[in-house]
Structures are given as C-alpha cells and as structure tokens.
Amino acid sequence: MPEQKSWCQGVCNLLQVNRLFMFAKTASTPPSNQIIQPGHQRVEVFTGGIIKLDNQELGRGTILWHGPGDRLNYFCDPDSLFSCIAISFKVADDRYRMPRISRWDPDSPLSMEEFFLESRRLFMNRQNDPEQIAFYLGTMLMRQVFLHSADNAEAAFSTRLKLILRLFSLEDPEKLSIKNISEKTRISVSYIHYLFKRELGMTPHQYILHKRMQHARMLLQSDCPIKEIARRCGFQGTEAFYKAFRTNCGMTPGEYRKSNCIIDS
Q1: Fold of 2-146
Q2: pTM for the complete prediction?
C-alpha cells in the first residue's frame, strides 16, 4: 500500500537524533530565524498555545515537519505560553519530504507528554544506540502522519468515555475542566464522574491532575519560568503547584529540573 511504503521510507531516512528538547516561548522570547541545514530535518509537536502560519491558526496537537531550507519563523500569540517538543534529525536524503502539517492522533497509545518524557529518557542515556532512537522516534512520528486509528487499551472503553478522553487529550492543560468537557459533550458532570470511576477507577479530578503533572514534567525540561509553568498547567499560584508536584513526584519542581539535567543547549 502507498501509505505503508511511504511510512517505511520515512523512518529509514532518519539516521540519527541530534537534539531532543522542550521549547517554551513566553512574550519576552525573541523570534527564531533559524534555517534548517542540508542533511537535517526538524519536527515540532505543539503541546500548548497558538501559532499563526500561512494564515492558519494552529494549536495543541499540530505537528510541523521542517526540511532543509525551511525557516523556523512564525507568529506566536504573545499573551499565551507557546510550547512544543522539538526533535532534530540527521537524514539520509534531503529529497524525501514529509507532509509539512499534520496532527497528533488522539487515539495514539502515548500522549504527547508521555512520548516526550519517554523519548527524552532514552535520548539522555548515552549507552543507547542513536540509530535505534531515531528509528523509535521516527516510527512514533510517522504513525501520527499516516495512521488515523490503532488498537490500544482504550478500545475497551465505552463510546462516551473515548469521546471524553479524546477531548481531554486535545485541550490545553490550562483549560482542562470537567465543566468544559460536559458542555462540549452534553454529558452531565455526574455521569462523567460515573464513567471515570467505572472504567478508569479514578475520579475526573484525579485524571486531570495526572495530565497536568505530565505536562509540568515536560515543561520543566525547558527554561520556562516555574511560575509560568504553574499557570500553564492550570494552577492558581506557585504554592499550589509546588504542593501538588511534591505530592505526586516526591520533589519540588526546581529539584526535578536540577536532578534531570534538563536544559539542552
């Protein structure tokens, strides 16, 4: 099949991962005018905020694939934190180009946050084979481009819960709320609680906190200020964020950032 062939070619074209990092842009961050050099490609998976590109507004879940000669320059909303996973690959053939804009599949076995944290752990372990890491990351990214559904653990969930989880996956963590999901799905708050307890064994609040902690751990692997991360993850202040992070992760956000040697120059 053409899509499967293209998928395999795309993965094989990725030779090595040069950089893998979380980029978080605030209003004070200057725009980038970086140009992708020959022999390289860069993928950006947007995890929050809004950008404007070619008269389009693109948000969370957008994947941009940049090839040689592309300039990393687009307008970001100065009033909201824009964040993305950035992966730079060394490639075998500059002529092989992926679709420039695609979307993260809401039915993917891994959320964007889980994908980044797992990939970062593998990338930082210098004993791992760079080619194998490129193959793993490439496979996950190609899946988002060419596949629209997959068999996974969520297949056993009810139709209504799958709809709710899909909306949760596409919503910025700052805006996550049961009320908003209830209004969008026209499913009552009480019934959402029932579905979560019956099928996930947790409350919606516990699920939301889990997603916010995942997003926080990811953003802490950028140089974004902790105060801004707290706001971006839906906390009213840094004190509440510190308390929740320490309870869930066993350390403060600053300790987590320091212990993981976060900033990748």
Answers
A1: Jelly Rolls (2.60.120)
A2: 0.73
